[in-house]
Structure formats: C-alpha cells, structure tokens
Amino acid sequence: MFSDQRLAELNQPLLAEHQTQFQYTAESPRLRHADVAAVVQKLIDFQVAIPSWALGTGGTRFGRFAAGGEPATLEDKIGDVGILQALNRSSNSISLHIPWDIPQDIPGLQQLLKEKGLVIDSVNSNTFQDQKDQPQSYKFGSLSHTDKAVREQAIQHNIDCVRYGKQLDAKTLTVWLADGSNFPGQSHLRRAFLRTQESLAAIYEAMPSDWTMLVEYKPYEPNFYSMVIPDWGTSLALCQALGQQAQVLVDLGHHLPNTNIEQIVGRLRQFGRLGGFHFNGSMYGDDDLTTGSIKPFQLFLIFNELVDAALDQSVPAEAVAYMIDASHNVKDPLEDLLQSVENILSAYAKALLVDREALAEAQEANDVVRAEEILRDAFLTDVRPLVSEAYLRAGGAIRPLAAFRAEGAREKLIQQRGKHSVSTGL
Ligand SMILES: [Mn+2]
Fold this sequence. Notes:
This protein is an alpha/beta fold. Helix 5 runs parallel beside helix 6, helix 8 (261-270) runs parallel beside helix 9 and helix 11 (356-364) runs antiparallel to helix 12 (368-379). It has helices spanning 4-26, 36-45, 74-88, 106-116, 148-167, 189-206, 232-242, 261-270, 296-311, 333-352, 356-364, 368-379, 384-394, 400-406, 409-417, and strands spanning 50-51, 59-60, 63-64, 93-97, 119-124, 172-175, 180-181, 212-216, 226-227, 246-251, 274-279, 321-324. The strands form three sheets. An eight-stranded parallel beta sheet has the order 1-4-5-6-8-10-11-12. Strands 2-3 form a two-stranded antiparallel sheet. It has a two-stranded antiparallel ribbon with strand order 7-9. It has one domain (47-354): Alpha-Beta Barrel (TIM Barrel), CATH 3.20.20. Residues 176, 216, 251, 278, 325 line the site of manganese (II) ion (MN).
C-alpha cells in the first residue's frame, strides 16, 4: 500500500514546512547543549514491537465494536505491521500470542516477514484461558495450580511456545500469569509462589541458551484478592532464582494508581534485570489505552531513567525489549498504534534532550527548582520536527497518521478483507 514512490508523493506537500520547522528546532539556542543530529539518529535506530493482538479492535467485558478489515490470519497481521513499518520505520517487529498465532506455513511466513522488513521478537504464552480440547482447566491457576497435572500442561504449553518461536527466529518468551485468588483463604500464598517458581524453573531449563524469559507482573485482575506475581519485587525474586536469562518485564498498566514507575525502571536497570516493556496508557489500571495518551510526563520520566542509565558505565548494559501491549475499543487499531509509537518516540526524544550535566549539578547542589526546570525544559520542547525528521530519513512518512488517512488505508483493508473479519484471539 505504501511504496517508496507513494510515500514520496504523500510527503511532497509537507516537505517545505517540515524543513523549516526542523531547522528552527535544530538551531534553537535552548538546545545548545544537545547534539540534535545524534538525537535524530537514535530515534531512527529505536524500534518498538507491535503486538499481534492489538491489530484488531479490543473489547471490554461489555462488548466489542469491530473496526472492519481486521486481520484474520497471522499473514494478515504481518501485513498490518508492514503498513505501520512502511509509515514510521520504527515498528520492525511483532509479538506473537500462542495459541492465537500458531505459525503454519513457516517458509511462507519467513518470506513474508523478509518482504516487509520485519522480525518476530517475542512469543507470549497464554494460560489465562482454557482452549478447546485442553484436558485440564486453568480456572484455579496454571503454573501455580495445586494439581500437578495442570502445572505440567501449563509448563508444556510454554515449552511449545518456545518451539513455535524458534521456527520464526524469535528469542524471547514472555510469561504473564493470571494466577491468584479471589477470596481470602482460597489459596496458600507462599505455597502458590513456590509452585510457580518450580514451574518456571522447568520452562527455563527447557529454553535454548540464547533465549530470554520475561516475567511480567500485575497487581490485580483477573484475580482480585491476590495475584501470584503482583509486583516487580516478586518478578525480580523469581528471575534471580531462575538465572541470568530471566528478566523482569514492566507493563505500564500493571501498577496501582500513582506508582512511581520510573523509579522501578531505574532500580531494575541498576540490578541488571530490566528485560523489557509493555507500553500502554492508563487512567486507573490495566486500561490498555494509547501509550502516552493520559500521562505523557510519566512516559518522559521513564525514558529519562533509561537514557540516564545508558550513559552510566556502572549500570549493566543489557538489551531491553520495547513492546506495545494495548488494544482498546473505540479507535482504528492501526491509527492507535501509530499514535502510540509516535508518543514513545517523542518521550524518548525529550529524554535525550535533557541537559544532564546541568541536572547533575543542580542535584548535587540540592537546587530543587533548577533540577525540576531542567526536566521541564526538555519535556516542553516541541520534538515533533525531530520525530518527523527521523521518519523521513529512515524512508517513512513525515506524518504517518496523516498518510494513513490520506491513503484511505482502512477503507482499502475493508475492501480486501470485508467489514466483519475478526482478528484471532479477540
Ligand atoms: Mn502486558
């Protein structure tokens, strides 16, 4: 849909204005301390994985309102991420969910991924719902279940996920457990933890040596009294017990309101255990809203910790997997993802513009106002010209969302796939 030539046509009317704005920003005396060309290069290099389950409209337990033209197969999903990648050149990987995305035609999928310039980054296991023909039920838990047969089924499912992932060159298994209890007394809290640790160890042992296991936490939902892995401390303890290939995954929506997530991120970097992110936006809990739509300042502060840690030689240098995990009810899913990626890039750009030398001086001098103002200066900078420049130099659209609409991309997808196609897993 978005050939290089078509993108050039879509960019043409925006080019002169963009160049004026970029030059104005790059030469701004306020950014004297920053290397703007290096910032643009870092934005070009930054990639965030798109979840296969965000390509269809999400729902709530009250219902779902389909967008039309949704991807019904893994091939369609790769096609959709290909559209995002063509437009912003920052979405070069896909997170799969098993069993919703079990790969069938491996050579065909490999070829398609290559054509679109995409890779599979992570495979997510699913033991939060029962599948058809599955002998054991996860109603009362999976890896933490009291019954060994249920635990073994859940362990095997995770091992199967690794096997599917290997076929498509993935290197990461993401484990999120819905396990927990709804009422006091329902579950023995310590024993549930120990059973989970034992089950994770069995999966970890079966994982190839070049794979990473990401252990995600969540404070509540679907269990409301206790979750077996409710917080980053529990995830960290499990990862430390498992080994160096186990890392903590921070899902922004998996925190109670007002949690200082940036401090958690800083701590995990310090301990060498930050494996990855699930980006999304939230007002109250796991709302799965567009990343940066509700708390852009928090997103900036998270990236501020990441940029600061990356510059600190005493912090272990480790790969962090950046992934989106969101899917809501009212937006076009692809437009939502374009917005999310842009908000992520903007937060990163702003964090890269922080005058770190001046900030360190202000912190040492306990100059509270100056320190805060330095962060605010970076946060309030209009970085849109820098982000657009990164899109453009990487071969994408100056304004991806505008290009998506100008092309009538959703209408074309509806023509191809029909009004009522339903994305697997939803
Ligand atoms: Mn998540």
